Amino acid sequence: MELRLGKAHQSWINELQQVLWAHRTTPKSNNEETPFSLVYGSEAVIPIEISVETKRVQDFDPKENKKRRREDLDILEERREMASIK
């Protein structure tokens, strides 16, 4: 954060949301999971994926998504337990 703010240390509050987003969506080396996925059961779609239309966004199917979301939520507790074991 020091490099990003430079000498303007008082502007850290302006950068806080981006720093927290990066922290929450970066896989952690100790359990190979993102904090976001352990809370919500799926990976976050970052804004650039929507504007650039990545394959993940292009292949989105609402009906299939609903089914997969249920499956993700069904195994969420197991994923959390595995992460805590690691």
UniProtKB/TrEMBL annotation:
Entry superkingdom: Eukaryota
InterPro entries tied to this protein: RNaseH_sf (IPR036397)
This protein's UniProt keywords: Nucleotidyltransferase, RNA-directed DNA polymerase, Transferase
Molecular function terms, GO-annotated: RNA-directed DNA polymerase activity
PANTHER family named among the record's database cross-references: RIBONUCLEASE H
Protein name: Reverse transcriptase domain-containing protein
Lineage: Eukaryota, Viridiplantae, Streptophyta, Embryophyta, Tracheophyta
